[in-house]
Amino acid sequence: MLKTKFTVRASREIALNTWELHLTGDTSGIVRPGQFVNIELPGLYLRRPISVCDWGEGSLTLIYKVVGRGTALMAGLKIGEELDILTGLGNGYDTAESGGRPLLIGGGAGVPPLYALAKVLKGEGKSPTAILGFNTREEVFYTEEFSALGVETRVATADGSLGIRGFVTDAMEGLNYSYVYTCGPMPMLRAVYEKMSTSGQFSFEERMGCGFGACMGCSIETKDGSKRICKDGPVLKREEIIW
Amino acid sequence: MVDTSVSLSGVRLDNPVIPASGTFGYGYEFAELYDINCLGSLSFKGTTRDPRFGNPTPRIAEADMGLLNAVGLQNPGVEKVIDEELPKLRSVFHKPIVANISGFSIDEYTYLAGRMDEAQGVAIVEVNISCPNVHAGGMSFGTDPRSAYEVTRAVKSATSKPVYMKLTPNVTSISAIAKACEDAGADGISMINTLLAMRIDIKRRRPIIANKTGGLSGPCVLPVAVRMVYEVYEAVKIPIIGMGGVSSAEDVVEMMLAGATAVEVGAANLKDPYASKRIVEALPELMERLGITRLSDIIGGAHNG
Q1: Taking the domain B6-56+72-196+217-298, which CATH number applies?
Q2: Which amino acids of B are annotated catalytic?
Q3: Neighboring chain B residues of A216 at a CB cutoff of 8 Å
């Protein structure tokens, strides 16, 4: 974990209620895709945990959906504003077990962390496939960015307004894969869990106090004992999940 | 050169700043960030006889200038704490340790106090009779003077280490409870635990926290805590560890002027992992600015006469 100042470089709405935020600052605390950052916002007591979409030396990209007070404040951030951020939080995805053809499944606001993961997997010479699920066309984002990485990308919308009509599990039909990485709303994670034929890793979300393992505010029970989503997670292996 | 040291029942602390139980784990997360030996002491995560998972999530909700929590005393149980957590903590922390214990019966409190009596590194036993987030025991011992008296007596019989009773603000007269603890032989009072609170999700029309209620802490409760420490200081002669929303060196001085001998820092550690260190470092300069040479001289300084 590293506590550092970041500066807003760009902020734009890339899909319905979905914002992309570019920041510059020290990203050396981030070591794995699937980790998150915890952002202090003026006027709010608790920081806001947001997953890392992409990072490079000195640059950080976050994508988030506006769902409440904190994310609404974030959408109002102006270029040049400074933010106090805890970086490199959580375990992140482990790419060691992915095999050659990992399947990445993201739902809505769960898509962003899979982008950095896809990049890392490609860098390791693997051939990931991505399934990106949304409710409707206006909410779709980053499909071109995934394709540009050379990742075979399938889009599913619940109302059929773009790509495959249905859920991400419908888009899994007929795919051969060696492993699954997923992030998204709880019902989607559960459905993927039931449908998948391999092992995999699931990224969970929980209301957090500190975000770095001190308060036990986000503990859940697993087959491997109690785990803090912020510190021992947010990524859990399929085998340890209790629904 | 100012003197920040204070003494709690004969236990000398280099400074009065103590991270509060439940906001600092067993210290490691913070020891990764800075040398936690700058702290006066450390009150570790509330320990029960048996391992506890705690309450279902969500356990956290936000408030303006504060937060609600209903963790529910999650801890690995006293044996694991003594065999594993305490030795690990002592490898990174060489200052006196405050052991925070919580029970569901007088017997359990007595047992825990006995185990902490033997535990190396533990200088003070802080007895939580005020947890608002468990449905049996916990706070019920701290809302009735007679129960508070009985727990104190039992704990005192099980340990020769100083016993500090941690009190709940969720009572009509906290002074009456504090007095009962003093009469039963308590060496000090630790106060205040969190204020029982609730937030409701207006879209779902249900309480945000799964336990429905949670304990409110953070800067929003500081004025309540200062008032209560002030009152209890006038009611008892034993020392007080003051807590509730302390987030700055100024808050430490305010709490001590109200009557606290030492101060615990809670919610602030969760917002800023460096909060306790920052407060310790800011104290000497603030003392100079306020013309304080010896910090212990200001204890209770806001009272008349």
Answers
A1: 3.20.20.70
A2: 131
A3: 22, 25, 45, 54, 59, 71, 74
